[in-house]
Design goal:
Number of domains: 1
Largest sheet: 4 strands, antiparallel
Structural class: alpha+beta
Distance between the termini: 11 Å
Order of helices and strands: EHEEEEHEH
Number of helices: 3
Radius of gyration: 15 Å
Strand order of the largest sheet: 2-5-1-6
Helix content: 25-40%
Number of strands: 6
CATH class: Alpha Beta
Length: about 140
C-alpha cells in the first residue's frame, strides 16, 4: 500500500510501481484506491470491500491506521506463478514508488492467507536477514 500526501503523488507512485512490476516476467500487477479487504462488515456475501482502516476520507472515524498527513492511498496488488518472481516484482515496484516526492510510507496488509499461500515481509525484500512482522 502506498500512503501519500496527495492524490497526485500517490497516483504517480502507483503508476511507477506498476511500470516496474510489469518489467518482471511471470507476474501481473494492478492497483486500487484505498485498498480492499476480504469480505465486509455489513455485507456478509461480499467478496471484497473498501479497507476502511486505510481510507483517507474515513480517517476521522474510529479504526483508522493512517497517519494524519496521509491524503491518498493506493494498494498495489502483485500476483505471479512463483514466489521469487512476486518478491522481485514487489521490490522493483517499491523502489519505483519510493522515488516519488510525497510518498510517506509503504506498508502491506495481511488477510490471514485468504488471498494466497505466500507471506512476504517487505523489509526482507531489501534485507534478506530481516523477518520483522512490522514491515
Amino acid at each position: 500500500m502506498i500512503l501519500a500526501e496527495s492524490d497526485e503523488s500517490a497516483l504517480k507512485a502507483a503508476e511507477g510501481a506498476l511500470e516496474g512490476i510489469q518489467a518482471v516476467p511471470y507476474v501481473v500487477g494492478k492497483f486500487a484506491s484505498s485498498g480492499t479487504k476480504v469480505g465486509g462488515k455489513r455485507y456478509k456475501d461480499a467478496v471484497a470491500t473498501i479497507n476502511d482502516a486505510y481510507c483517507p476520507s474515513l480517517a476521522p472515524n474510529n479504526g483508522s491506521k493512517l497517519p494524519e498527513n496521509v491524503r491518498c492511498v493506493y494498494e498495489v496488488i502483485v500476483s505471479g506463478l512463483r514466489l521469487e518472481d512476486v518478491r522481485r516484482a514487489m521490490k522493483t515496484g517499491i523502489d519505483k514508488a519510493t522515488r516519488v516526492h510525497g510518498v510517506l510510507k509503504i506498508t502491506a496488509t495481511n488477510y490471514g492467507g485468504t488471498l494466497g499461500k505466500g507471506k512476504i515481509f517487505l523489509r526482507s525484500l531489501f534485507n534478506p536477514e530481516s523477518q520483522d512482522e512490522k514491515c
